[in-house]
């Protein structure tokens, strides 16, 4: 009976994750079609529906978890650990595994210097700020207010400087049946909320019956599931030549997740922060982003230096290839390193950072 209960709750949890992600994608698609139908500008759609849409599973999870904490449904520590682990785990997955798989799928990923300054540096700063606020083991309502306010400020900055940023036009077709699409969007959002409730029930069962910690489940299972919309959008965008959409989706989501997701949840209920998130997950999220940034910014310099060494050793052809390394271009070798970095992060997490509190 115990084994059957574990299997049943595992199946229910998997269905809940799939439902959460798919319903979020349907809701975003219908909302974009409705916005196009009513003549909402592509810039506004990009900064609102699309930027928040791929983070909808994480955002819904935070709202549901905070609501359960406020209502006294479930252990607040388990709920906090699970939702924070899922959020931060999703960010790490995107920065390493997702970017790596996307590059392997399409052959290359090119970053502009302006994008690195306007997107990548704010993403690293956001992670560092979350780490500082969470260092004392609590995320209070004041902390949440700070994070949400920064999200609004960053969104306002993007809107005010939109003419200086390469904007990708929306290729969404306008809605042909606004009433129907509005109903579908509403039902999809309801499914997102219900799926999140079911998911936390399943996680609570596993924590109680198996001894697994909430943040570990969040990082390993929820993080990968919640990152799937960003991965799908990024691959489709790159295959269609929409580089801006792919880059913006991956990086923008990692800004939205902590600022709006963790910020909104903390503002509603406060969170207990598990030790592994402070001592390993958030630092590794920062380190992985910094490694990729340093790699992209110094790649041509390193190639030039190694090319000079190869020339002095008599390997002229190798030296020429090394000097021809393109700046801010992530190829298959870099992608493989990112994927290896993710699995290394996961191995250490599972092996040495097991207990939450």
Structural class: mainly alpha
Number of strands: 4
In CATH, the homologous superfamily goes by the name: NCX, central ion-binding region
Estimate nothing, just give the exact number of structural domains: 1
Q: Give the SSE string.
A: HHHHEHEHHHHHEHHEH
What is the CATH class designation? Mainly Alpha
What Rg is obtained from the alpha carbons, in whole angstroms? 21 Å
Number of helices: 13
Distance between the termini: 30 Å
Written overview of the protein:
By secondary structure, the protein is an all-alpha fold. The protein has a single domain (2-352), classed as Up-down Bundle (A middle domain of Talin 1). It has 13 helices and 4 strands. Strands 1-4 form a two-stranded antiparallel ribbon. Helix 1 (2-37) packs antiparallel against helix 7 (178-210), helix 3 (56-71) packs parallel to helix 10 and helix 5 runs antiparallel to helix 11. It is globular. Mean pLDDT is 79; it is low at 164-170.
Tags for this model:
357 residues, mainly alpha, A middle domain of Talin 1, two-stranded antiparallel ribbon, 13 helices, 2% strand
Topology:
Blueprint: H1 2-37, H2 42-53, H3 56-71, H4 76-106, E1 109-110, H5 113-134, E2 138-139, H6 141-160, H7 178-210, H8 214-226, H9 228-239, H10 243-269, E3 271-272, H11 275-312, H12 316-323, E4 329-330, H13 332-352
Antiparallel strand pairs: 1-4, 2-3
Helix pairs in contact: 1-2, 1-7, 3-4, 3-7, 3-10, 4-8, 4-9, 4-10, 4-11, 4-13, 5-10, 5-11, 6-10, 9-10, 11-12, 11-13
């Amino acid at each position: 009976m115990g084994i059957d209960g574990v299997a049943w709750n595992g199946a229910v949890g998997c269905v809940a994750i799939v439902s959460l992600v798919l319903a979020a994608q349907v809701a975003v698609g219908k909302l974009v079609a409705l916005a196009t139908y009513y003549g909402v500008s592509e810039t506004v759609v990009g900064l609102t529906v699309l930027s928040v849409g791929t983070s909808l599973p994480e955002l819904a999870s935070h709202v549901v978890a905070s609501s359960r904490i406020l209502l006294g449904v479930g252990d607040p520590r388990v709920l906090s650990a699970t939702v924070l682990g899922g959020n931060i785990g999703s960010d790490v997955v995107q920065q390493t595994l997702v970017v790596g798989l996307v590059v392997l799928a399409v052959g290359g990923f090119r970053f502009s210097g302006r994008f690195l300054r306007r997107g990548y540096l704010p993403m690293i700063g956001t992670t560092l700020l979350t780490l500082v606020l969470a260092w004392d083991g609590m995320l209070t309502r004041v902390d949440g207010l700070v994070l949400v306010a920064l999200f609004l400020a960053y969104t306002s900055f993007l809107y005010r400087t939109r003419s200086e940023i390469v904007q990708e036009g929306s290729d969404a077709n306008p809605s042909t049946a606004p009433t129907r699409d509005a109903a579908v969007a509403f039902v999809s959002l309801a499914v997102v909320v219900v799926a999140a409730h079911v998911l936390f029930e399943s996680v609570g069962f596993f924590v109680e019956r198996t001894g697994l910690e909430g943040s570990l489940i969040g990082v390993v299972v929820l993080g990968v599931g919640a990152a799937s919309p960003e991965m799908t959008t990024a691959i489709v965008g790159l295959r269609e030549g929409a580089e801006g959409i792919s880059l913006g989706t991956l990086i923008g989501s990692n800004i939205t997740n902590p600022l709006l997701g963790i910020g909104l949840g903390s503002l509603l209920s406060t969170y207990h922060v598990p030790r592994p998130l402070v001592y390993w997950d958030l630092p590794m999220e920062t380190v992985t982003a910094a490694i990729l940034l340093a790699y992209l910014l110094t790649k041509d310099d390193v190639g030039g230096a190694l090319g000079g060494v190869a020339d002095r050793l008599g390997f002229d052809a190798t030296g020429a290839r090394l000097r021809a390394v393109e700046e801010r271009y992530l190829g298959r070798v870099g992608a493989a390193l990112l994927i290896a970095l993710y699995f290394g992060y996961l191995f250490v997490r599972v092996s040495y950072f097991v207990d939450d509190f």
